[in-house]
Structure prediction request, 276 residues.
Amino acid sequence: MTNKKLTLQIDFRSGLPIYTQIVNQVQAQVASGILKPDDQLPTVRALAEELRVNFNTVARAYRILDEARIISTQQGRGTFITEIPPPKVTERLRRESLEALTQRYVSEALRQGFSKGEIRQMVSDQLKSWNESGKSEE
Amino acid sequence: MTNKKLTLQIDFRSGLPIYTQIVNQVQAQVASGILKPDDQLPTVRALAEELRVNFNTVARAYRILDEARIISTQQGRGTFITEIPPPKVTERLRRESLEALTQRYVSEALRQGFSKGEIRQMVSDQLKSWNESGKSEE
DNA sequence: TGACAATGATACAATTAGTACAATTATGAC
DNA sequence: GTCATAATTGTACTAATTGTATCATTGTCA
Prediction:
């Protein structure tokens, strides 16, 4: 497929640089199969406008993804998802992405004074409620 | 809201260090609700100019507030009020706070294509590793 | 006077934005 | 159909904005 929507959520106060957030999320969506080879990403300017950031910030993220062989940027043409890297790499990227996301969540929850038990319980509850109301995956 | 005015009154003859006065007043305004989470504080230079002090003095105050987890300073981006510290809130508010935090995390992880099992496992792992390397709470 | 805390000066690092340019593709006159 | 030209897309380099680190200066007080 071409020209998929690419939904990204940028948190401007998360402490993570915007370009890093873009990299992480594209990486995660590729690793999870939401983005597939030959999918075209938005142009640097289009994505920049959507996220309300400078297009160089997007370009920087794209460059990093390009160097990681996850996307292929072609001047004058556009940006595309490359071939799926070997499963080992994919799995590593997936894991790193989830790890970063989770670490932010856990450290923030602990910082706010919640116990590990409370956190574990709440995550479990939310996952369950997602079971009932939503898709039955896993 | 972002970029609120932040009115501070510095008394140069009070004997209290300037940075202490900044810390106290920001703290007070956060506690009283004048400053809310995600509000952006003035840059160290802007506030320094307004107060007619060296920007390092402001930076020092910001560093203390940052270490106290009241604000979050980010090089190249700015300074923001963090989440309201949880100390004296009721059990119900506490729970709602964790619930909101967790929901954001879980929905984001699911959106990025991770399975519930992966999420549960990763949270568990991170909580464990916090046991070993960090504080021994719970 | 000497120690120490507070403040200031200076240089630096990280992030994002601005500007000009190069490569490719689309369009239109002929 | 072919070529000139404009539009679109990514690239490179630079500037601006922000916080950080280190050391010097000042001032107070025992």
